[in-house]
Sequence to fold (461 residues):
Amino acid sequence: MANSLSGRFLILTIIFVMLAEVFIFVPSIARFREDYLLARLERAQIASLALLAADGMIDDDLEYELLENAEVLNVVLRRDAVRQLVLSTDGMEPISATFDLRDPPAWQLIRDASMRLLEAEEQNIRVIGQPVREAGLLIEITMETEPLRTAMIDYGLRVFLLSAVISIFTAVLLFGAVRVLMVNPIKRVVHAMISYAQAPEDANRIITPRGTVRELRDAEEALHAMQTQLTSLLRQRERLAQLGEAVAKISHDLRNILSVATLVADRLETVQDPTVKRIAPKLVNSLNRAINLTEATLAFGRAEEPAPKLDRVPLEALVDDVLDNDNLAQEDGEVSYDAVIEPGMVVRADPEQLHRVLSNLVRNARQAITATGMPGEVIVRAGTQEGGWFIEVCDTGPGLPDGAREALFKPFASTSKVGGTGLGLTICSEILRGHGGSLTLKSTGSDGTTFAMFLPSGIAA
Fold:
């Protein structure tokens, strides 16, 4: 129960009400003590006036009875600037303290009441007050502290019991209100979430907002919107998965058909007819591109990039290796390469995956320049920035067409390279996302294209 919301509300309510009662109890017990002493002063004044009215014609037994009824030991009345001992008791113990009740400050009353509760030893005290109805200038009484302390303790116990009853009653009411207004609606939301998690594709399990509390209503509406969107995405992914499975089957069969057609086209190259000899190479190239596309489609459907094995990679050596390999791949040697990297720069990455990304970007840059038939240059720049490292691959090619820019990182999107599958940049982007980084098109135009990579220095992949 203590771990539940309503149970904690119940416990906290009792604690807070009791604390509030403590702050009320201290001044109330001080007020009770003051009223108790004023009542004794009033009784003593009545007894003294009765004695004065009888002009001293009262025997000792009656005088003792007047003192006992007033619960005092003696009474001093000051009238006409004369201080007169009106009633007294023989054999009285010495007075321990004197308290003046003529307009005392509140803090003094609280202090005296607290000290009286803590002091268990019986004492005699003097109390000074103002006579009621101006029956004299001053009245003083001497009394024992034990009856006063007993009355204060009895009053405190009654206040404590009343406070406990009030706090428990209030806590029970709050407990019921919290369960009705908060706990039950929260349980309904939790139950709806559990039910939806069991079958998120079932639209009937989406929560229907019914909360009457504004905050809970907002939470239910937000959950409803999230579940609706998630269900829609799951259905869309399911349809895409089915479509992808169908495309994979078609691509598999189509690849076999195209392989046979390629073999036949290879036989056509041996034919001596001029028209056939002119058309056959184009046919073979078209068939090879079609086979490459089907194989790339099957590979993309099956492949899942493994998690990167992060290590400290000397970037300058890795870039030099990528550029050397790509330089060997060009035929005419019209593309030059350059690297501008901070000396001794070390990045945090998977060396094999980073090599794949750079090789892909450098190869694309070289092919873009080669397509123009003009000499050009591929430059790799790298350095540090806030939160990680940047690597840029720049070329002096003709830039990307508008159609390629709009769907640059989408799989199988149209590219500027003839025969391309449109998967290279998609795979590069996925690899960098696995590192916690990103791949973006920084700039493109008639003077060339720049792709920018970012690798974080402190984010675990």
